[in-house]
């Protein structure tokens, strides 16, 4: 297998096992939370009997939500921005209207609740059937993306492996589009991401309904997540230089990850906190907030430094002209600021925030810590894949960069 094919076969023979194991894992964690107080029980037949079927309401909620977000993606005001250069040198344009969409969505949800069109607990009430609805939708959409890519492969598409399952898993096109509608950007950035925060708030409403008040951990977790996603929209353009957009085909892994995994597992902490109404001491609250803020600053400064540098390599970083390697490929690798300390300090910042979100849940159960465990595995694996891709792309220049910037994610440790 040549180097390009090896990259394309990134998940090797794990594609099918992952598609078989991950959806039940999402159900399992929800069932443990919902029916067993957050304890990790043996996954017996009794446990799986809790898997719900879709309902008319859950299908209506999901289709309404997906359609509403798609309409906003198409019609909401926002500038058209050019993405990174594709292999043929051309650039796709993306409508950056996320900031407007984010706030407009909350105005609509608040109005809907105020006018009595739906209850604030609606997403909690239909969570199980919604999960099944979204899973079926994600498998279907992935099949459509597979066919779309086969019919209209685009220039930047990572080399295909010829293995049906792996191609379905990884996708067959880099930028599948219908007209100007970019399926990958939309799914990455809209229904699942805003859905995650909407579900959290619905869980908070449920806690309020059951207990008559909101606990500090619930307020913290909802505020942290709200801020994280709002910040994403504020810096929306930065997504155009991320790995997913630049290098990852759009297949089951991203479709299901964006639409099902994110909203149904990133909300586990808020789900856990509905029934676990412990409080936090002032010291613990301050410590957790400080961890989240420190993580955020590392994450945001790192990402924005790369983004600004790629837009204008002359712009000062920490008051000095940036040092960089001009690669044979033409692009530039930053050696200053955060990018001179480690190759992925943005991952470290993200992990610190993830830890803060888990810590609010206390130490009663392991399941609320699922996020930091999974996220560590994801980012370590992602860094390895990124390293292989960059090594293949930049060759000797990448070796020079790695020699100068020794640490991968955590300076002094890894
Ligand atoms: P990066 O934004 O770090 O992008 C990596 C790419 O940047 C490389 O492929 C390379 O691409 C380029 N690059 C590498 N080194 C340099 C350098 N020194 N100077 C300039 N460019 C360089 O990684 P990701 O896209 O993986 O992550 C973006 C953010 O998204 C991170 O903060 C991450 O934590 C977050 N994230 C969050 C997830 C979640 O579920 N919450 C999931 C995944 C990521 P090239 O040279 O080809 O441009």
Distance between the termini: 30 Å
The general outline is globular
Number of strand segments: 6
The parts where pLDDT drops under 50 for at least 5 residues are: none
Q: In the residues, how many domains can be counted?
A: 2
SSE-based structural type:
mainly alpha
Strand order of the largest sheet: 1-2
The gyration radius over C-alpha positions equals: 22 Å
- Please state the average pLDDT score: 92
Number of helices: 18
* Sheet having the most strands: 2 strands, antiparallel
> In what range is the share of β-strand residues?
under 5%
- How much helical structure, as a percent, in the residues? 55-70%
- Helices and strands, in order, run as HHHHEEHHHHEEHHHHHHHEEHHH
Q: Name every ligand kind in the structure.
A: NADPH dihydro-nicotinamide-adenine-dinucleotide phosphate
């Amino acid at each position: 297998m040549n180097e390009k094919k090896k990259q394309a076969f990134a998940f090797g023979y794990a594609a099918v096992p992952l598609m078989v194991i991950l959806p039940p894992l999402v159900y399992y964690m929800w069932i443990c939370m919902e029916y067993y107080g957050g304890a990790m029980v043996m996954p017996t037949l009794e446990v799986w009997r809790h898997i719900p079927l879709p309902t008319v309401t859950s299908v209506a909620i999901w289709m309404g939500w997906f359609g509403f977000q798609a309409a906003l993606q198409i019609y909401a005001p926002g500038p058209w921005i050019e993405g990174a250069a594709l292999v043929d040198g051309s650039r796709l344009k993306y409508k950056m209207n996320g900031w407007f969409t984010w706030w407009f969505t909350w105005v609509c949800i608040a109005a809907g609740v105020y006018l009595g069109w739906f209850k604030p607990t609606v997403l909690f009430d239909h969570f199980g059937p919604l999960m099944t609805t979204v899973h079926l939708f994600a498998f279907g959409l992935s099949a459509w993306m597979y066919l779309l890519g086969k019919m209209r492969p685009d220039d930047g598409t990572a080399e295909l492996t010829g293995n049906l399952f792996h191609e379905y898993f990884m996708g067959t096109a880099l930028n599948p589009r219908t007209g100007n509608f970019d399926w990958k950007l939309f799914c990455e950035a809209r229904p699942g991401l805003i859905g995650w925060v909407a579900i959290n708030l619905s869980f908070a409403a449920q806690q309020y309904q059951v207990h008559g008040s909101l606990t500090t951990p619930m307020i913290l977790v909802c505020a942290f997540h709200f801020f994280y996603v709002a910040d994403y929209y504020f810096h929306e353009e930065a997504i155009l230089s991320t790995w997913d957009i630049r290098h990852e085909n759009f297949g089951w892994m991203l479709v299901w990850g964006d639409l099902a995994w994110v909203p149904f597992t990133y909300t586990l902490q808020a789900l856990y906190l509905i029934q676990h109404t412990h409080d936090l001491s002032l010291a613990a609250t301050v410590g957790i907030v400080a961890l989240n803020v420190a993580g955020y600053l590392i994450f945001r400064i790192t990402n924005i430094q790369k983004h600004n540098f790629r837009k204008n390599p002359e712009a000062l970083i920490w008051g000095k002209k940036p040092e960089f390697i001009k690669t044979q490929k033409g692009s530039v690798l930053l050696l200053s600021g955060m990018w001179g300390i480690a190759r992925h300090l943005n991952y470290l910042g993200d992990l610190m925030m993830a830890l803060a979100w888990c810590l609010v849940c206390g130490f009663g159960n392991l399941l609320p810590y699922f996020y930091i465990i999974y996220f560590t595995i994801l980012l370590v694996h992602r860094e390895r894949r990124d390293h292989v891709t960059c090594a293949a792309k930049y060759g000797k220049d990448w070796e020079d960069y790695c020699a100068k910037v020794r640490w991968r994610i955590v300076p002094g440790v890894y």
